[in-house]
Amino acid sequence: MAEKANASGNPVAVVAGGSTGIGASVATRLDEEGYRVVVVGSKSVEEGKAVAASLHDGLFLQADLGEADAAQHVVTAVENRYGRLDTVVYAAGTTVRIPHSDIQAVTDEVWEDILRMNVLGPWRFVRAAESLLKRGGQGNLIVVGALAGVDTGGSSLPYAVSKAAVHHMCKLLGWALGPHVRVNVVAPGFIETRWTEDWAELRSLVTEKAPLHRTGRPEEIAEIVIGLMRSTYVTGQVVVADGGLSLVP
Ligand SMILES: NC(=O)c1ccc[n+]([C@@H]2O[C@H](COP(=O)([O-])OP(=O)(O)OC[C@H]3O[C@@H](n4cnc5c(N)ncnc54)[C@H](OP(=O)(O)O)[C@@H]3O)[C@@H](O)[C@H]2O)c1
């Protein structure tokens, strides 16, 4: 077994889903805050390596977070290399686009894939990283949820349920893991990433109806992640960032 690293030095963050989109922006902001950042991705290997290379002290790890032992492998690699883990940001996620009224299209397989990535995925990180996060005394877990988990709507019914579930899980974890680890959620509305690039109809709706009359940028979600990390009296909360869309009746 590799010798354990010394825990001194700058704080360490893992960004699950840090290769692209919101996660990549979070990785960049954490780097600006002086973190050593571990970018985790599965398929977007070149993008993930490029994000890690753009950071002062970045590392890319390839892991399919749908697999049962992937989070543990990531955390063990982090412990061996750095001897500490201060922050986990879980921005990885999956969905399929199915109208909510199309009940017959939602097979067990659809449910299982979505719940595995969006609910079990962050849960497995919590189990794997609990002791390391607690060890530093000021650990942070931040999950990227979704407006779909707060309001009606979203790309599919299982996706919306998975985000509602992870929101509630984080509320319970805020309770269970205090005082050494704070757990919070940022729940975006429509953010311009590859995830939404062909969602023309919804983009028009948001631009027309939301009080801020535009869609969001990944950097704006990353800023909330940093804000939640700095907000030392906040835990178990869900912060919605949707340009005010949810205010519209
Ligand atoms: N964009 C929006 O409007 C919006 C709105 C609300 C919530 N969100 C949430 O924001 C998060 C990030 O989405 P995004 O918009 O930034 O889209 P994105 O760029 O497609 O990000 C999704 C990330 O999840 C990772 N991922 C997916 N399956 C994985 C697996 N099996 N193992 C490891 N990583 C995996 C992807 O990495 P690989 O490509 O390497 O697999 C990718 O980095 C998601 O949780 C999504 O639900 C997005």
First-last Cα distance: 58 Å
Taking Cα atoms only, what radius of gyration do you get, to the nearest Å?
A: 17 Å
Order of helices and strands: EHEHEHEHEHEHHE
Shape: globular
- β-sheet strand percentage: 15-25%
Keywords: Oxidoreductase
Family: Belongs to the short-chain dehydrogenases/reductases (SDR) family.
Pfam family, one: adh_short_C2
InterPro entries: NAD(P)-bd_dom_sf, Sc_DH/Rdtase_CS, SDR_fam
Give a short synopsis of this structure:
The protein is an alpha/beta fold and 249 residues long. It has helices at residues 21-32, 45-53, 70-82, 108-135, 157-177, 200-209, 218-230, and strands spanning 12-16, 36-41, 58-62, 87-90, 139-144, 181-188, 238-241.
Question: What does this protein look like?
Answer:
It is a single chain. The protein has helices at 21-32, 45-53, 70-82, 108-135, 157-177, 200-209, 218-230, and strands at 12-16, 36-41, 58-62, 87-90, 139-144, 181-188, 238-241. Helices cover 43% and strands 15% of the residues. The mean pLDDT is 96. The longest helix is centred in the middle third of the chain and has 28 residues, at 108-135. It contains 7 helices and 7 strands. It is α/β, with parallel strands linked by helices and 249 residues long. It has a single domain (12-243), classed as 3-Layer(aba) Sandwich (Rossmann fold), CATH 3.40.50. Helix 1 packs across helix 7, helix 3 packs parallel to helix 4 and helix 4 packs parallel to helix 5 (157-177).
What tags apply to this protein structure?
binds NADP nicotinamide-adenine-dinucleotide phosphate; Rossmann fold; 7 helices; 249 residues; 15% strand; alpha/beta
